[in-house]
Specification:
Layout (H helix, E strand, L loop, with lengths): L3 H30 L3 H29 L1 H20 L4 H18 L1 H10 L2 H32 L8 H4 L2 H14 L24 H10 L4 H20 L7 H23 L13 H31 L4 H7 L1 H21 L1 H23 L4 H27 L7 H52 L1 H5 L11 E3 L5 E3 L4
Antiparallel strand pairs: 1-2
Helix pairs in contact: 1-2, 1-4, 1-5, 1-6, 1-8, 2-3, 2-4, 2-10, 2-17, 3-4, 3-5, 3-8, 5-17, 6-13, 6-14, 6-16, 10-11, 10-17, 12-16, 12-17, 14-15, 14-16, 15-16, 15-17
Length: 492
């Protein structure tokens, strides 16, 4: 079990790293591959929207065919896609490889939270969630810092290709270890029985899994509807601002609404939906999802504004801008690791404090800019952002998954991950558009000040949501599984 958590979290780091690292390499990509603006946007944004569009399906596939199996296959496919990115001879090939990389990330990432939920006992799960928060933040920061270092080092004259090829020596051993160290469903602490007194068949073993697979089917209509609806909404959010919000972007956004609505109606009527709407009957999951959406809209846009402020407002290089996020990264790690004890002791009050600390960090940046301060003065409020996010995100995710049955863990993890990706993209699109619209009239620093006020309002809105989470001292309720077995909902 010693290697279980590092192997699981390697997927979180790689997916987060690759989401951010291409931003640093964009100028090199454009120069070496003679990529046009549209190709460059697809290299950067293509990964994001295929990743987000496939998360729900990836989570459901894990529920059907085994989280360990889907993790190993997803990791191997992601490594191969990274290799294809690094070997791409032209912009078109790189775009296709990045789209594939997003799809494969969507296959492995939902299994992370599902494996943590199903593989660790309750007293160990909080520690695992703390490390999940650490690795998530560390991957994003390393995407900027390590990406810049790799570009400057120009190892073997490979230039930008190293930012993709670095995944290969990590992904190959992770995929191999996954088949050996990750627990099978029969070894998980809380398996769902088929009948009283009988263990659930192990879907990782062919001889035992045949009856389960015969009954379990993938909802193809739901997959197409969810993936298509999310893509219709996410593509304009990712590419619309750079294109000046053309008509196709608004048409695509508008079309996503009836597609997603029709899909949800279908999901209510199908026996084995890809989106399990019964998850939202638990207040922990429904409120936790809303809190995830609001917080990630705020935090995603906040990282964009601060990156633009440091690189363009203060003229820092990508590497130095990434290093300026060092206090944020360290504070995130400290809060994620230490926050589990606070969440265990104080429950939702610790999450309320985390959101409030994040708001203080936003307000602190606003005060520094208003006073004409520089990068050094920004380090303290950036550290507050790290403390707040490190305390909030792992606890909120743990709270949202606390009442989820093991057989729903993949679907729940896929939904939560989709909410995070989509809301992060929506926040970046909305407040990014506000920032650039104000930059011409008020300058970059002035635009950041006004945008941070909007971000502060969004961050403050997360505080009352934490108060709607179930109380830690509320009596435990039972939820009937489909087989009729009662499972105790875990408290925050």
């Amino acid at each position: 079990m010693r290697l279980t958590l590092p192997v699981i979290l390697s997927a979180t780091f790689m997916a987060s790293f690759d989401y951010m690292v291409v931003n640093v390499a964009a100028p090199s990509l454009q120069r070496d591959l003679h990529a046009g603006a549209a190709a460059l946007e697809l290299v950067i944004g293509g990964y994001a929207f295929t990743y987000a569009a496939g998360l729900v399906t990836g989570g459901r596939l894990g529920d059907l065919f085994g989280h360990r199996r889907m993790f190993a296959l997803g990791m191997a496919a992601f490594t191969l896609a990274s290799l294809l990115c690094g070997l791409s001879p032209d912009a078109g090939t790189l775009v296709a490889a990045r789209l594939l990389q997003g799809v494969t990330a969507a296959a492995m990432v939902p299994q992370v939270l599902a494996l943590i939920t199903a593989s660790f006992a309750a007293d160990e799960r909080a520690r695992a969630m703390s490390w999940f928060g650490v690795v998530t933040g560390l991957g994003a920061v390393c995407g900027q810092v390590l990406g810049g270092v790799l570009l400057q080092a120009d190892l073997l004259g490979l230039g930008w290709r190293t930012i993709f090829l670095v995944n290969v020596p990590v992904g190959v051993p992770a995929a191999l270890l996954a088949t050996r160290v990750l627990p099978t469903p029969s070894a998980q602490p809380a398996p769902q029985p088929n009948a009283p007194g009988r263990p659930k068949p192990d879907p990782s073993e062919p001889s035992q899994a045949a009856p389960a697979r015969a009954a379990a089917r993938l909802d193809v209509t739901g997959v197409v509807g969810v993936s298509g609806g999310v893509a219709l909404a996410l593509v304009p959010l990712v590419l619309g601002r750079e294109e000046g919000w053309p008509a196709w972007a608004w048409v695509s956004l508008a079309a996503s609404v009836p597609v997603l609505a029709a899909t949800l109606l279908w999901e209510r009527r199908t026996a084995q939906p890809v989106v399990d709407l019964t998850l939202f009957r638990a207040r922990s999951f429904s409120v936790g999802s809303a809190l995830n959406i609001a917080f990630m809209m705020s935090f995603g846009s906040l990282m964009l504004v601060n990156t633009l402020l440091l690189q363009y407002g203060f003229g820092l290089s990508p590497v130095r801008a990434g290093l300026a996020f060092g206090p944020l990264a360290l504070a995130t790690m400290a809060a994620s690791l230490g926050g589990r004890r606070l969440v265990a002791r104080y429950g939702r009050r610790a999450l309320t404090a985390g959101c409030a600390i994040t708001a203080l960090g936003v307000a602190g940046i606003e005060v520094v800019l208003h006073a004409g301060g520089g990068v050094a003065e920004l380090l303290a409020p950036l550290a507050l952002l790290g403390l707040g996010s490190g305390l909030t995100l792992p606890g909120v995710i743990g709270a949202a998954l606390s009442g989820v049955r093991p057989d729903q863990a993949g679907a729940a993890s896929g939904l939560l991950s989709t909410f995070q990706q989509f809301s992060g993209a929506a926040g970046v699109a909305a407040l990014g558009a506000l920032f650039f619209s104000l930059a011409g009239r008020h300058g970059l620093v002035g635009a950041a000040q006004y945008t941070l006020l909007a971000n502060l309002a969004l961050t403050l809105a997360t505080i009352p949501l934490t108060l709607l989470l179930p109380r830690p001292d509320a009596p435990r309720k039972t939820a009937k599984s489909r087989s009729g077995t009662s499972v105790l909902d875990r408290r925050i």
